[in-house]
Amino acid sequence: MQPSTNLPLTETTALSPLDGRYARTTAELRAVFSEYAFMRARVQVEIEWLLALTMLGLPELPALTPAAGAAARRLAQDFSVTDCERIKTIEARINHDVKAVEYWLKERTADLPELRSAAEFVHFACTSEDINNCAHALMLRDGRAALLRRLRALHARLRDLAHQHAARPMLGRTHGQAATPTTVGKEFANFAVRLAAAIGTIESVQARAKLNGAVGNFNAHLAACPEIQWERVAADVLQSLGLTRNSHTTQIEPHDWMAELFDALARANAIVLGLNRDLWGYIALGYFRQGAAPGEVGSSTMPHKVNPIDFENSEGNLGLANAMLRHLSDKLTVSRWQRDLSDSTVLRNLGVAFGHCLLAYESCLRGLDRIELDPLALAADLDQSWEVLAEALQTVMRRYGVEQPYEKLKELTRGRAVTRETLHQFIAALPIPEAARRELLALTPATYVGLAEDLALRC
User: Fold this and answer.
1) Which of 57, 79, 126, 442 has a CA that sits 20 to 30 A from residue 407's CA?
2) What local confidence, expressed as pLDDT, does residue 451 receive?
3) Among all residues, which ones are annotated catalytic?
4) Averaged over 299-308, what is the pLDDT?
């Protein structure tokens, strides 16, 4: 039986799970990265460019009245899905998406005398990429804001957990083996501090764009109006859009700032991915329990299971996101000569990369809300690991000149079961000052945490 090729597009028939299974989570990105959103951004750029031209004092283009200017801006502000569909209809006829926007604008302003008389100044001296690169910058600006809201929420949650569990001792694990103790809060603080720095880097990336014509030199602009200071006009329009002008480009803005943004997001994602894996491991060790949602099934055959699926889902989506972000970063900064179109189809996938980021952050947040610390499991693990005090003992021995301290502790502890009594017998025989001996005898795995509590509270 052949599957139908005429399925209606719904959440259950969508090709991508971002618009299918996960549609409710990613819905807000439709207003940022969809074809509709792309068209709306193009309309906004075209209108702002036209309005700037009307302010140049050209005899052929009188200044618009405030009412006409407001009417022009409303075309972008009130841009609807129906408007987008009309542009797509025009595109189907002429096979050019940006030219279709120009024709649609002329259609929509035909009944407005002031705007109708300015019709031939729509898209004046522009190449399609002048409009597209600005539209992409606006889309990425809004997409970045959506991701930053989740990253800030994630950072706040980590900071809360760091402070809440600042003093709760936990066995360290280096190479998966019992190691110097830390505290639960300090481990959350490590991720909180790293994520705060990553958020700062993402925020600091400056969105750049160009409005300088076919090869970046204002050729057509100067041919038509040599008296105009076109660089200043372009810079002012871009500034009004919240963008920074890139003065040196070919037909395309070289996308270096985009690569900077994608790389910054990928680094933040790597931090969150590490958090997911660590928490997965701590759940496996029993340090954290997970709240079971009523009616939820953890396994189709093992009724007892409460799987760490939120952290696993987050990890998987971060991998997909970073694969795309790194491809975007590598691909978009390379173009043949003054222009090729290999970037165009790639840029249409910005929302896919951001969608996987959004899914990952939401999953991680959901996972963090479900975990609950098990103090008894933490304490039991520490009490079975007295060998971790060997580090402290040999360091004190070094201070007081005891010969071969590392080697003696290695012989006592490496690969052997070590108990409180074993260590106390060893300490009792050490040739060290009595005060130092008393301090070592008072030390336990649970109290050997250094500055962990203070560091956790300072994140």
Assistant:
1) 442
2) 98
3) 175, 299
4) 60
Domain 28-124: assigned CATH number? 1.10.275.10
Asked, colleague to colleague, whether 129-292+305-377 and 385-457 share their fold, the answer is no
- Residue 164 pLDDT > 80: yes
Judged against a pLDDT cut of 70, whether residue 148 lies above it is answered with yes
Please tell me the predicted confidence (pLDDT) of residue 298: 57
CATH architecture of 129-292+305-377: Up-down Bundle (1.20)
For the chain, the structural domain boundaries read 28-124, 129-292+305-377, 385-457
The predicted model scores a pTM of: 0.93
Q: Could you give the percent of the chain with pLDDT greater than 90?
A: 89
Instruction: Read off the pLDDT of residues 244-254 as tens digits, 9 standing for 90 and up.
Output: 999 999 999 99
Q: What is the SS3 assignment for the chain?
A: CCCCCCCCCCCCCCCCCCCCCCHHHHHHHHHHHCHHHHHHHHHHHHHHHHHHHCCCCCCCCCCCCHHHHHHHHHHHHCCCHHHHHHHHHHHHHHCCHHHHHHHHHHHHCCCCHHHHHCHHHCCCCCCHHHHHHHHHHHHHHHHHHHHHHHHHHHHHHHHHHHHHCCCCEEEEEECCEEEEEEEHHHHHHHHHHHHHHHHHHHHHCCCEECCCCCCCCCHHHHHHCCCCCHHHHHHHHHHHCCCEECCCCCCCCCCHHHHHHHHHHHHHHHHHHHHHHHHHHHHHHCCEEECCCCCCCCCCCCCCCCCCHHHHHHHHHHHHHHHHHHHHHHHHCCCCCCCCCHHHHHHCCHHHHHHHHHHHHHHHHHHHHHEEECHHHHHHHHHCCHHHHHHHHHHHHHHCCCCCHHHHHHHHHCCCCCCHHHHHHHHHCCCCCHHHHHHHHHCCCCCCCCCHHHHHHCC
With 60 as the cut, is the pLDDT of residue 288 above it?
yes
